[in-house]
């Protein structure tokens, strides 16, 4: 039976790497692709969305911004062509950005909408939720290119609220979630932790 409404016959092993900026997601995915040569990475926003993405939560309304990110999420999902896939973020992050702009007492109003969008995803084996201390996050941001650094620093004030929203949303998914604090982990230690979990699923 096909598992995704966007990609009707997408079945296999699917993992999501969630987390804030500079928590180690991209580094982890790059290293996992070396460990598993048949692993495909699906990123949350396709390159051609760059122009409209720049308008999100700026020129676009909050709801229009959320819908733009969801559209991008679903477009990248549609392009997945493997049965062993890791998603670099997902609609969970898209909703966490949206909720971070809302008062917490309003978050429950969007649970039904969130759960409806989850139905478009394939069956996810595990969500790896990467966290990082603020001190370590800033150190990592300062090592990035000037363009990336500027973008991440502009979002810094929202990171704590986005993480709160992300935790709230993860509780609504009923998907196995493995939380890993990457603050004091080497890249190899992080890869080993994630690999051990993935290998236990196969």
Describe the structure.
With 202 residues, this protein is of the alpha/beta class. It has one domain: 3-Layer(aba) Sandwich (Rossmann fold), CATH 3.40.50.300. The protein is 49% helix and 13% strand. It has eight helices and five strands; from the N terminus they run E-H-E-H-H-E-H-H-E-H-H-E-H. A five-stranded parallel beta sheet has the order 2-3-1-4-5, sandwiched between helices. Helix 3 runs antiparallel to helix 4 (91-100). The relative contact order is 0.20.
CATH architecture, by name, is 3-Layer(aba) Sandwich
What is the 3D shape?
Answer: globular
- Structure class: alpha/beta
What value does the average pLDDT take?
Answer: 88
Integer count of domains? 1
Tally of strands: 5
User: Helical residue percent?
Assistant: 40-55%
Ends apart, CA distance between termini? 19 Å
Q: How would you name the CATH homologous superfamily? A: P-loop containing nucleotide triphosphate hydrolases
Question: How are the strands of the largest sheet arranged?
Answer: 2-3-1-4-5
Largest sheet: 5 strands, parallel
- For the record, what CATH class applies? Alpha Beta
Give the uncertain stretches in residue-range form: none
Enter the CATH topology name. Answer: Rossmann fold
Order of helices and strands: EHEHHEHHEHHEH
The portion of residues forming beta strands comes to 5-15%
Query: Radius of gyration, rounded?
Result: 16 Å
- Individual helix count: 8
């Amino acid at each position: 039976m096909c598992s995704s409404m966007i990609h009707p016959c997408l079945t296999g092993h699917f993992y999501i790497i969630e987390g804030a900026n500079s928590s180690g997601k991209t580094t982890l995915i790059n290293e996992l692709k070396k460990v598993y040569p048949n692993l495909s990475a699906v990123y949350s926003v396709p390159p051609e969305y760059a122009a409209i993405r720049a308008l999100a939560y700026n020129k676009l309304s909050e709801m229009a911004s959320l819908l733009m990110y969801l559209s991008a999420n679903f477009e990248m999902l549609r392009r997945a062509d493997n049965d062993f896939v890791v998603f670099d973020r997902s609609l969970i992050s898209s909703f966490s950005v949206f909720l971070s702009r809302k008062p917490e007492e309003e978050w429950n109003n969007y649970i039904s909408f969130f759960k409806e969008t989850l139905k478009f995803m394939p069956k996810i084996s595990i969500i790896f939720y990467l966290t990082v201390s603020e001190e370590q996050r800033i150190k990592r941001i300062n090592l990035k290119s000037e363009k990336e650094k500027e973008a991440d620093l502009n979002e810094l004030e929202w990171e704590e609220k986005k993480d709160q929203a992300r935790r709230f949303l993860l509780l609504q998914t009923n998907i196995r979630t493995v939380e890993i604090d990457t603050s004091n982990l080497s890249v190899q230690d992080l890869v080993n932790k994630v690999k051990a979990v993935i290998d236990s699923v196969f």
